[in-house]
Amino acid sequence: MAELAPHELRVLVAVAETGGFSAAAARLGLTQSAVSHSVRGSEAKVGAVLFERGRTGASPTPAGERAVGLARRILRMYEVLGAEARGAGRDAVEGVLRIAAFRSAALHLLPPALERLTARHPGIRPEVRVVRELGAGTAGEVAAGRADLGIATLNGTGPVPAEGGAAGLLTGVLREEAYALVHPAGHPDPKTLPLLDWDENCGSYTRDWWRAQDWIPRATVKAEDDGMVLTMVGRGLGMAILPELSLREATDAVDITGLGPSGPVRRVGYVTTPESAATLGVRALIRELRSETR
């Protein structure tokens, strides 16, 4: 197969992100016909249709989604090449480091690690985006080339089911944290309260345990995130089952009760690509994250 040139990769990414050939042309400073010609050439080289064309624009096919994700990752390597070369041999890390994390990890796990990382490497510029652990979640951001490293739940129902990697990704466990029952402070019988839940709390490792507990009712209230659930519990609106990172925001308005040795445990870890795992910035961040969780 003929190789795609960097400018062809940029065209694929622009079409996918703007939703059409004309919009991609405007972004790249090209003509619409030049973009169309480039996409047709890329499809011929790849041997697959990458975009569905329609009156409303262009959308990636499954082959196109994969190609665009890889294109972003390859272009990212071009971006970091200079910083990698300059830092080689002198333990210097510089440039942008793109991180995706779910909310409680972004609040509690990342900041101390980033504080140490930027103190050791003043030239590094972390960019952190909070991504909900639904669907592809943070791992999907890494696979699609939008993040260099993600903080993810590794034993959920998403695309990274276990340490070692899936879909071309590399993973590693950073911490294991137990779930606990959280309920309004001083409540005499919290197990009689309604159950509060949030969409991201949907790992099979949790649900299987829940289904085996006859005292846990079906959730009657769902909130946007775990922080909202914790606030609602503190207001006396129900009980919830939350992991340790979420409970770091607990106030005196709630009590926390352990679920015992058979209770569910969540594995939190990092997700990255093989090529990003070899870069100085990602390696340095993983070291700091591991240091934080020892």
Automatic annotation (TrEMBL):
Gene3D superfamilies: Periplasmic binding protein-like II, Winged helix-like DNA-binding domain superfamily/Winged helix DNA-binding domain. The keyword DNA-binding applies. SUPFAM superfamilies: Periplasmic binding protein-like II, Winged helix' DNA-binding domain. Residues 9-61 form the HTH lysR-type domain. GO terms for cellular component: protein-DNA complex. Keywords: DNA-binding, Transcription, Transcription regulation. InterPro entries: LysR_HTH_N, LysR_subst-bd, WH-like_DNA-bd_sf, WH_DNA-bd_sf. Coiled coil: none annotated. The keyword Transcription regulation applies. One of its GO terms (molecular function) is DNA binding. Belongs to the LysR transcriptional regulatory family. This is LysR family transcriptional regulator. It comes from Streptomyces sp. R33.
